[in-house]
Predict the structure.
Amino acid sequence: MLRDASGKMVLTKGWKIFHVVVAIILLTAIILLSVFLGLSRADGKSWMAMSENNMESAYYTLTDSLLNIENNFSKLRVTRDGNLAGEMLIDVAMDSQTAAANLAILSYSGYDMSALVKFCNQVGDYSKYLVTKLTGGEELSEEDYNTLAKLYEATYSIGKKLNAVKDALMSGEKIVTGLDEFNSQFTEIADSLVDGSIKYPSLIYDGAFSDSLEERQPKALSGEDIDPEKQQDNIAKILCDYEIKSVKYTGESDNGFTAYVYDITLEDGSNVYLQLAKKGGSIVMWDKQFDSQQPTLSVEEGVVLAEQYMQKQGYENVKGVYACVTDSVLYVNICYVENDIVLYPDMIKIKVSLDDGKIIGFEGLNYIYNHTERSLETPSVTEGEVRNMNFGGLEVQSVRLALIPLDNGKESLTYEVYGKVDNYAYYVFIDAMTGKAVEVLQVIDSDEGELLM
Amino acid sequence: MDKKLVLKRSMVAVAVLITVIVGIAAFYSVQPAEETAVLKRGSSGSQVRTLQTKLNNWGYNCGTVDGIFGSKTVAAVKQFQKNNGLTVDGIVGAKTAAALGMTLTSGSSSNSSYNSSDVYLLAKCIYAESRGEPYLGQVAVGAVVLNRVKSSAFPNSISGVIYQPYAFTAVLDGQINLEPNDTAYSAARDAMNGWDPTNGCLYYYNPATATSSWIWTRTVKLTIGKHRFAV
């Protein structure tokens, strides 16, 4: 830049060009930036709209399915024909699943609507139970119909309260921007199920979500209470594969029964987390982190080690019944065997390292809850009769007696029929008293696991 | 000022402009790479069986045709890739598959795609929610998810529970999309196999960060690491 004789600044031609170029560049940058911001905003808006649409779709699907349930319950008040009632109940079971899934989408924090989700799941489960009763040749009792009538009242009241949400939506309010508001409306409905302002019968029936299953008692715990601070010897026996550096008693776990919790440091620097039952001191569970290296042992060798470990810990008459491997970690399911009957409800799981054969975990909750003296019935169906049954395309490989746990918390003496179709493994369980099939299990990812005979 | 200098400065300015444009263009073109089907160590199922059968037939030793992509299959694939002038990585992608005469399809790599994705989802949730916690604290988080699946008051599937809005903060803020590490996978498998240090708890919270007043009303059953587990 130059100055003229009077001291004024004079722009040379070069500087003028430079300024013009800079101005053009700035202008272009501003235009680009605004386009970019505009696009981002539009993007944000469309994401928001999509979210809102998903929420509203969930809301309307929810109300539709609840209305269907209400209608079917209403019709069941004047239906005493088993077949027709069965059809309506199947619809209820399906609609309640839809309702529960959509409620979950609308839920604000995973817990405030749990009473409402529970209502839907329980209604569906109860309906399924009634359908099973009907297809089994039984009739529905007047008590069943009374319960259904009460459920109709409850569904009707819920529907009425949900209308408030609909009114808000129709007046243009958005769920995504008014989450707190909508949430409080849903929470109020859920609360009224809990506090009794919507009457909701207690559902006790043979199903997975029956109210009767909420309080289960540990059957296997017996003996004197142990002193939590004096378990060093007991723990050394449990962790017999390891050199223990220190045992730290960290406190109680108090869910269902009291257990003492220990944090154990081993000489190799790793940690074991262990729980002992207060009553009698039996192992509830223990586990340690494990990094797989190179397996050196076979599955069969690992299963033998798991069985030997169980015997060392004082569990007699146990047998590995199923094993699966991931990397070098072998999970072995171990069951009590009584008179050649496999007792699945008492199953204990053992984790074995196939790198060095050490036991790396023990899971005994099922044992603690279910293990007890049982008087098992004598089967009225023979193994030969079961082998002659029609199992579709199943190539039967083995049949043995097994006691299995059912969804409703009961146990059933069955024949376990194991076989394969196209390399995929199946278990079919046949009631040993009635000869009816009670359960079919398919081994998922069967390549990784195998049945042990 | 001479023309050269002007030219130089103009060029610098143009360069800045180009950088801005390229930057914005790059921002918009960042799309996740399209997912293509590959078979690699850890894959399993019918496609792996086909692969093993083909390799065995051509004299590459995969061992027994078991449908599991293990170390023997990796070695056989590498040998095949070497002999056919392909990149030797032991992974069957589109090119290796084409050389093998196979078409890879994503999904359905096992008899039920359900199981494997469940372990993956659970591991993701554990990693996002509790990666700084002691190992058993991570198993416990996995167990809480599975206890919710079993409970009537929550959705009846693992994905339903994990993606329930606002149920897990790590899902809400996107941490769920971090790739889980081996520890999270081990914890997920332990939880799926029944290990439950909480004995049936449905909730957990970190008392230092929990914002909901409701959660404090739950009965705490035990504490592991920074988390309180409750019903």
About this structure: The first strand of chain B starts at residue 203 and ends at 205. Chain B touches chain A through 66 residues (CB under 8 Å).
